[in-house]
Amino acid sequence: MAATYETILTDLDRGVLTLTLNRPDKLNAFNPALQRDLIAAFGAINADNDVRAVVVTGAGRAFCAGADISGGADAFKVWGDNTKPVKRDPKDSITQVIAGCLKPVIAAINGAAVGVGITMCLPMDIRMMSSTARIGFVFNKRGMVMEAGSSWYLPRLVGMQRAQEWVMTGGLFGAEEAIKGGLVRSVHAPEDLLPAAQELGRKFAKDTSSVAAAINRRLMWAMLGATNPADALAIDLACIAYMARGADAQEGIRSFMEKRPPVFPMNPATDMPPFGPWHEEG
Fold first, then answer.
1. Alpha carbon of 49 to those of 12, 112, 171, 174, 252: distances in Å?
2. d(Cα 124, Cα 143) in Å, to the nearest integer?
3. Separation between Cα atoms, residue 99 and residue 88, nearest integer Å
4. What is the pLDDT of residues 135-194, one digit of tens each?
5. How many helices, marked H, and strands, marked E, lie in the chain?
6. Which architecture characterizes domain 210-279 according to CATH?
7. Beta strand 186-188 with 135-136: parallel, antiparallel or unpaired?
8. pLDDT recorded at residue 71
9. d(Cα 55, Cα 193) in Å, to the nearest integer?
């Protein structure tokens, strides 16, 4: 992760990459440059075996205040012919890139997270929040439609009734409502939020196989759309057979028997099974 980005900062410490949205003068509002940087960073994360977990947060007093609308309604423009729906290329969608990450991703929502500022957090695995932060699915108040696949993610995370209320009102709400609704895992004092998220990331990284973690992360997300547990059984049996032949399973057993911390040799960048949802994005 030696790359330099225009709109984000990255810092790798003990396996945890802290990725900071860095447009504080614009409340980290989402623009094409931020989109490009995030997509590039998550691509690099998948290829870097030193990164075992990712924490995403914002510089200054906001997490991300939504789309940068300083240029007017063109901020929402996605394609030229607005009479036809267009399938997004997964490589151009920040939601799809985060969903396809091979490392666990934690959102440390330090301040305002509005519109895309909160929908980009939905495919992250854990959401933690400052007690002073505010969240808003404000689309109806902007005359805009839910984006970033949030119409799929949000009802699955919090239930249809609560998702409808938050979107239909378009209002801002705080930490108490977010945790009551199940949108966030935990609420922290502002000064404690980032250290708590980084500590959780270190727990994810400690003594665990990065390949097993990647497979398990992607399987759980993929199975949200399954209609029958047999769908999960079929893919997990294939993955068990694959991993059982691999060096990580051997090291896991050997280190347990020898009562020492494991040193797993496999790498998600090169050693994922040659089948499964991690190949579907192309």
1. 12, 32, 40, 36, 18
2. 26
3. 14
4. 999 999 999 999 889 999 999 999 999 999 999 999 999 999 999 999 999 999 999 999
5. 11, 10
6. Orthogonal Bundle (1.10)
7. unpaired
8. 58
9. 11
Q: Is the pLDDT of residue 279 over 70?
A: yes
- The phi, psi pair for 24, rounded to 5°, reads -60, -30
**Which pLDDT score, from 0 to 100, does residue 90 have?**
57
Residue 241 vs residues 36, 237, 244, 265: alpha-carbon distances, Å: 38, 6, 5, 18
**Residue 251: alpha-carbon gap to chain centroid:** 29
Sign of the torsion angle spanned by Cα atoms 240, 126, 157, 120: negative
Residue 174's Cβ-count burial label (10 Å; 0-12, 13-18, 19+) is: middle
Q: Which fold has domain 8-205?
A: 2-enoyl-CoA Hydratase; Chain A, domain 1 (3.90.226)
Task: Give the global pTM.
Answer: 0.92
Band (pLDDT 50/70/90 cuts) for residue 2 is: low
Maximum C-alpha span of the chain: 64
Written as one letter, the residue type at 184 is V
Residues of the chain above pLDDT 90, percent: 84
Q: How many CA atoms lie within 13 A of 277 on its CB side?
A: 24
